[in-house]
Amino acid sequence: MRINWNYPKLFLLIICITTLYAFTNQRNAMRNVKGMNIDFVGQENLFLTQEMVNKLLIQNYGSLKNVPKERVVLNTIESVLQTHDMVKDAQVYLTVDGELNTKITQRQPVGRVAGERSFYLDDQGLQMPLSPNHSARVPIITGEITGKTLEDAYVILKYINQDPFLSKNVIGIHIQGESDYQLKFRLEHFVVRLGDVTDLDEKFKNFKAFYTKATEEKTLLSYQVVSLEFENQVVCTKI
Length: 239
Known about the structure:
The protein folds into 2 domains: 31-106, Ubiquitin-like (UB roll) (Roll); 144-238, Cell division protein FtsQ/DivIB (Rossmann fold). The chain is built from 6 helices and 12 strands. Strand 5 (119-122) and strand 6 form a beta hairpin. The protein has 239 residues and is α/β, with parallel strands linked by helices. The longest helix has 25 residues, at 6-30. The strands form 2 sheets. Strands 6-5-4-7-8-9-10-11-12 form a 9-stranded mixed beta sheet. Strands 1-3-2 form a 3-stranded mixed beta sheet, covered by helices on one side.
């Protein structure tokens, strides 16, 4: 009777691979964290510094250097980083050679509230504290600050940031009251009365037509207030 040696060979091969895999995993788990790299994703101006991130981690974990890799809980570290007021998202992973890599996405301000309490409004419409490290160049929001008017200001800013012309020229929003919003332009004397936040597409379409014509006719500097409050109309007040 001939013995088929293929099955014993296959069995031995599986045992060897399993043993080698288990040994490799054990050796890898026994390694310590060699160091930590912190990368900020997509922004040059940092509201948050590497020193601030290191301090936050040390306050919660102590030094992570030389800590065994098996004791490092990546999800927990990510959660701690995401508690920081300047952090939108954090991803943490370990490399094979023991480097702890951290990728941080900062929150992005779209407007700055100037009043009794100053803060940013971020790209999700949430309040964001000012940073001691960097001041963002965003439109200034002044006037009657309430929960409702901030919601409306966010709607206006979101629209402005999607339009190259408006994002270049609008430097502020002044809130006279609910449904009474005024846009400040780079021309110091020039104010656009927007009214409420309804029909923004139509209002800005009419405004751009007026702005183009006034620029061509060189009469733009003679206007002080441009009102878009009335349906399908642009009402101007001269200086």
